[in-house]
Design brief:
Layout lengths: L1 E4 L7 H11 L4 E7 L2 H13 L3 E7 L2 E8 L2 H13 L3 E5 L9 H17 L6 E4 L14 H9 L3 E5 H6 L10 E3 L1 H10 L2 E3 L2
Parallel strand pairs: 1-2, 5-6, 5-9, 6-7, 7-8
Antiparallel strand pairs: 2-4, 3-4
């Protein structure tokens, strides 16, 4: 069993380090130690996205993520390859839609998300970056639409660094905290990226 000590590494390094270690393993167990809940969640979700099982144990100030990689991973990876062509990602990097009047931009974003909810085909993932993270935080006027999208199976992720910058890390109401590695990987794997 390998142990990776990722304490003190800035986002997204714990995920990058975990990926490198998993890529070198055929099967077995890997323990990743991190020093904050965000990194723990990011490593856990990444491991699960690779077809591995992951369990988190909190030990004082640290988190230990036990990852099990088995032979089934190759089958999961093959099925994920087939699904790639069907992946649609919506990338939102502002709480407003378009440039110009702020009131109009806010109205257009609300209409965009409501319309997205009403479409027959839903995206796989909705990425919130920069001031776009405000949309999924307390006080947002579009929380109902985002929660409904989440209930329909749309994965909503918000940039952790952006939440921290805007002081919203504890105010995220819908979706998961993510990192640049995870965000970029999902955009690279998507068949289409839609940016309002």
């Amino acid at each position: 069993m390998s142990v990776l000590d990722c304490r003190g590494l800035a986002c997204p390094q714990p995920v990058v380090t975990t990926k490198k270690a998993l890529d070198q393993m055929n099967e077995g167990e890997l323990i990743v130690i991190v020093d904050n809940a965000t990194s723990s969640n990011n490593v856990e979700r990444f491991a699960q996205s690779q077809g591995c099982s992951a369990e988190v144990e909190e030990r004082g100030q640290d988190f230990s993520v036990r990852i099990r990689k088995g032979k089934k991973v190759t089958e999961t990876a093959a099925s994920q390859e087939k699904e790639k062509a069907k992946k649609v990602v919506v990338y939102i990097n502002s709480h407003l839609m378009g440039n110009g009047d702020e009131a109009l931009g806010s109205f257009l974003m609300k209409a965009f998300l409501k319309t997205l909810l009403d479409l027959e085909t839903q995206p796989n993932r909705l990425i919130l970056l920069n001031s776009g993270v405000q949309l999924a935080s307390q006080g947002s006027k579009v929380l109902d639409s985002l929660k409904a999208l989440s209930e329909k199976g749309v994965e909503i992720v918000a940039c952790g660094s952006c939440l921290e910058f805007y002081g919203l890390k504890e105010k995220l109401e819908v979706g998961a905290v993510s990192n640049m590695f995870d965000i970029l990987q999902s955009m690279m794997e998507a068949d289409r990226v839609i940016r309002p």
